[in-house]
Design brief:
Length: about 325
């Protein structure tokens, strides 16, 4: 029992017992002894909502350097870019320029003896250097995913494709058998495969290269990742199927806010899909900027060489009259 000026109030478990004055039934204010607390957005005009902190970029690279620790050779010398939702960054360059190594570093799948020797990579604001194997398993597929060249080599030839996609959604999203089956059919429709019911029951060897690439894309986006890395994903396809796959990636970006990293040696692909482009040579970024600026007003001799070699058979067909003006 409290003194005559108050009464005992019993709180719930874990809460303190507090004396409340009889006269008001309210808790007495503590005496103010310090400076006035800061008021957030004190200068905000009436009717303007409070500022909301910006969400971290789905993928951010800062001066990333990659070294072969077995030989001491430095293979990538400082790659920097930020990927925001619904945007696409392209990485172009000749074979051996460091494009794929950069992407493998972002996925945490560098080859043995290779490692990040400088800079940092963040996924959703988390430095990947702090991730445990279990944390990586949780991130891959659900936050960051990838599609590579030669889709047949990434699918199990002895398991029907629908079952392979279903395994992803059951493990990553905890769906039951029936819900997973419906999700698979929805994904196959989303990647514009005809007769999804029939396709999901087929084996990889029964499908064409273009269909397999769509299956791989459906598998990669099954768990709703924020970032998709497409590493030479259209290289082995003929021109017509390549265009269809590029349109599909653009549609996924537009409808879901998916952020894309597109790796290619083909400037026509980059011109069609990317907002920003990095040009790499011998492990270095020799030019970087908005795609339109880099491809139409190249500054580095190597970029000019790439453009000159491509525009006669690839780049021009994606230029619009406005861009040429």
């Amino acid at each position: 029992m409290t003194p005559s000026t108050g009464r005992t109030v019993t709180r719930g478990p874990g809460e303190a017992r507090t004396a409340v004055p009889r006269s008001t039934g309210r808790r007495p204010a503590a005496p103010h002894t310090g400076p006035e607390p800061a008021v957030p957005d004190a200068g905000r005009p009436p009717g303007v909502p409070h500022a909301v902190p910006a969400a971290p970029s789905p993928l951010s690279l800062r001066d990333v350097r990659i070294t072969d620790h077995a030989t001491g050779r430095k293979l990538v010398h400082g790659v920097t870019f930020d990927l925001t939702p619904g945007r696409t960054v392209g990485i172009v360059g000749e074979s051996g320029s460091g494009k794929t190594l950069t992407c493998r570093a972002a996925l945490g799948i560098l080859p043995a003896h290779f490692g990040i020797s400088g800079g940092s990579i963040e996924i959703d604001g988390t430095d990947i250097g702090t991730l445990t194997p279990r944390a990586w398993t949780a991130l891959r597929g659900s936050t960051v995913s990838a599609v590579f060249q030669d889709p047949a080599s990434y699918l199990n030839p002895s398991i029907r494709v629908g079952r392979q996609i279903a395994e992803v959604v059951r493990v990553k999203q905890g769906l039951g058998r029936r819900a997973a089956h419906e999700r698979v059919l929805g994904l196959l429709r989303a990647v514009h495969l005809r007769d999804p019911e029939r396709v999901q029951g087929q084996y990889p060897h029964e499908l064409s290269g273009g269909m397999l690439q769509r299956i791989l894309i459906a598998t990669a986006v099954a768990a709703g990742p924020r970032v998709l890395i497409a590493d030479e994903a259209t290289t082995a396809l003929d021109v017509t199927v390549q265009a269809e796959v590029l349109d599909l990636l653009a549609e996924l970006r537009r409808t879901t806010g998916l952020a894309l990293v597109v790796v290619s040696h083909d400037l026509a692909v980059v011109a069609r899909l990317c907002d920003e482009v990095l040009v790499m040579r011998d492990g270095e970024v020799v030019e970087q900027g908005p795609t339109r600026t880099v491809l139409h007003h190249p500054r580095h001799p190597y970029t000019r060489l790439l453009v000159d070699e491509h525009e006669q058979y690839g780049l021009d067909r994606f230029r619009t009259p406005e861009e040429d003006a």
